[in-house]
Amino acid sequence: MTTNAQIGFGASFAYETSPGSGSYTTGVEVTDIGPPGAKLSTVDVTHMASPGGVREFVGGLIDPGQVSIKINFAPSSGTDADLDAWLASRLGRSAKITFANAAVWTFKAIPTDYAATIPMDGKQEATFTAQLSGSKVVS
Fold first, then answer.
1. Architecture of the domain whose range is 12-37+66-138
2. Averaged confidence pLDDT in the chain
3. What is the torsion angle, in degrees rounded to the nearest 10, for the CA atoms of residue 135, residue 67, residue 34 and residue 30?
């Protein structure tokens, strides 16, 4: 049987240049993309006559998850300035992940974290994280 496994080389992360613009900038020197993973909450609906005294639950709302990217950090570079400004704006923007096989996930995301690491003897990296707001669109 032939495998469908593939490596991530060639994937990209892009984000709107400004909210609602429809114009995207691709993040420069992205080394790792953490696609969002959805999680369903549960709501406790246990009552005084729940069978066997066992808690009962129903499905609640879905949290669409977070996306994270790791980049080769270059202070004051275009990507650094863009991500820093996006976080400072506190606004959601459209973003998209294009996979190596050309599949695309598009979603609205609100930045939550942008932090760099500067090791004494190693490459400088930064991680940018954003919370999805609403469902992703797969194309």
1. Irregular (4.10)
2. 96
3. 120
